[in-house]
Amino acid sequence: MVAVRLGSLMLLAALSLCAAPRTVTVNVTADIAAKGYAAANALDGDPTTMWHTPWGAAETKLPHELTIDLGAEVALTGFRYQRRLDGANGCVGEYAVMVSPDGTTWGEPVVQGTFAQKSGAETSTFPQPLTARFVRWQALSEINGRPWTSVAELELLADGVLFRAPTALDASHHGTPEPPIPRKRQGPDTSTLAGAMEMARITLAFV
Ligand SMILES: [Ca+2]
């Protein structure tokens, strides 16, 4: 009886391992990105980080787009757009998706539409399953008519596959690494006589 139960548990564990999606590392670029809001943030699996286009003096007109190189041809069924969790700026209204075998030749959109919601996540299924290596995801409008685009997560839907972009480097065209945080100036250790005297000297120097 115990052996049968153990066997069942092992079978369940094996099945769950088989069902776990494999992660494929991809390259993603954007037409433009605000500093600190790189394109890779849209495919890092973290809904609290996002790709965001510049605003203010640096903003540019729509459409804005992400181009994703999957590394090889993959069968895709659609995408899931996760909006930012902390506001509405840049949330996409109208969208279009194009695919390419080589990253150069792009045909008509394989799907185009307007998101029904203004918050949360939304899934769009391609009218027909397709196979592609390069995907271009375009934002054609923003829900409040402004020229910005934000994407917390863009999940391309493929059976048994998760696509992730490395985030160690800023993968956007215009992105540059954030400047390092200045080190906090260390004061002398005032628990020692020498440290206390040094602190007194520094304090007096500023009086
Ligand atoms: Ca993210």
CATH topology: Jelly Rolls
Shape: globular
Provide the CATH superfamily: Galactose-binding domain-like
Low-confidence runs (pLDDT<50, min 5 residues)?
A: 170-188, 202-207
Instruction: State the distance separating the first and last CA atoms.
Output: 84 Å
One letter per element, helices H and strands E, the order comes to: HEEEEEEEEEEH
Q: Tell me, what is the CATH class?
A: Mainly Beta
Mean pLDDT: 83
Q: Which small-molecule ligands are present, each listed once?
A: calcium ion
Radius of gyration: 24 Å
Question: In total, how many domains does the architecture comprise?
Answer: 1
Write a structural description.
The protein has 207 residues and is α+β, with helices and mostly antiparallel strands. The chain has one domain: Sandwich (Jelly Rolls), CATH 2.60.120. It is 15% helix and 34% strand. The strands form 3 sheets. Strands 2, 4, 5, 6, 7 and 9 form a 6-stranded antiparallel sheet that branches. A two-stranded parallel sheet has the order 1-10. The chain has a two-stranded antiparallel sheet with strand order 3-8. Bound molecules: calcium ion.
What's the arrangement of secondary structure elements?
Layout: H1 2-19, E1 22-25, E2 27-30, E3 51-52, E4 64-82, E5 94-100, E6 111-114, E7 121-139, E8 150-151, E9 153-157, E10 161-164, H2 193-205
Parallel strand pairs: 1-10
Antiparallel strand pairs: 2-4, 3-8, 4-7, 4-9, 5-6, 5-7
Bound molecules: calcium ion.
Calcium ion is lined by residues 41-42, 44, 46-47, 49-50, 152-153.
